[in-house]
């Protein structure tokens, strides 16, 4: 294990210990606590510049998020973009950084050479002196955080910068792209978005016939925008990411089929996708649906219905909505297709 990796590991343990202190908000993982606001996190400092137990942690307001057992996260559509797996934000006051680092150095497990370099950096004025105690109350030490639910991702190890100081009201160094900003908060909120399940209503339901148009539609009552707000109270910055449904894509599960429309993409219209089947429409072409050309035999066809959501954000200093990559969320459902039986007399 490298010296830097040892520090990161120790830092992660310390961060967990900080979050376990009394009077902190519940630490929700992705998808947990739907409809909850982590309202107890203050992110404040006392008059001596000592950070509160959870200062620097990103706070999520999920009160307008999707909920229910079928709700799930969106996946970036058409590219490999993902929200950041790690980021930097305030974590320590001068006193807290000293309390964090000195036990690591005293243990000697990281090696004399590395310990000496770290003492030079934070104590001996190369470039910081005595943990910046003379600047107590004028700024904070920033360190890395791993995005909840992303600890196993390769990107979680990308934040390898040494702990650094940022004065109050100053921007973090320009060469640290993962330093928390309203845009980073928007991307972290993207990671927390949960949208309703996409099981479409079919008519006929469950079992249909060869060459018989099957109508498909979604319940408009559940099909509405959702949003999550992420903030860092200590820095007085926030961003709200909103997801709005724009279309439904139907993949019938076999090439022996035709979709309506031919692209298989049903656009949203007046807040609805598709149109419920009604008696007397059996000869009509559905605005959204599928027609199977061959029986599914002894098993069903795995129809996949995926909703595309348009995501955008606004936040501190950003009033006009900024685009984020579209997201998709889909589900598979079985469709049995039978031959139409005729009787010869």
Quote the average pLDDT: 83
Major beta-sheet overview:
8 strands, mixed
Shape: elongated
| Percentage beta strand | 25-35%
Q: How big is the Rg? A: 27 Å
Low-confidence stretches: 1-44
Number of helices: 4
Order of helices and strands: HEEEHHEEHEEEEEEEEEE
Write a short abstract of this structure.
This protein is α+β, with helices and mostly antiparallel strands.
Characterise this structure.
This protein is of the alpha+beta class. The chain has four helices and 15 strands. The protein has helices spanning 3-19, 94-107, 112-122, 182-192; strands spanning 59-61, 75-76, 86-92, 139-146, 164-167, 201-203, 207-209, 214-217, 226-232, 237-251, 257-260, 265-267, 289-292, 301-315, 318-338. Strands 1, 2, 7, 9, 10, 12, 14 and 15 form an eight-stranded mixed β-sheet that branches. It has a four-stranded antiparallel β-sheet with strand order 6-8-13-11, with no helix packed on it. It has a three-stranded antiparallel β-sheet with strand order 3-4-5. It is elongated, with a radius of gyration of 27 Å. Residues 1-44 have low confidence and may be disordered.
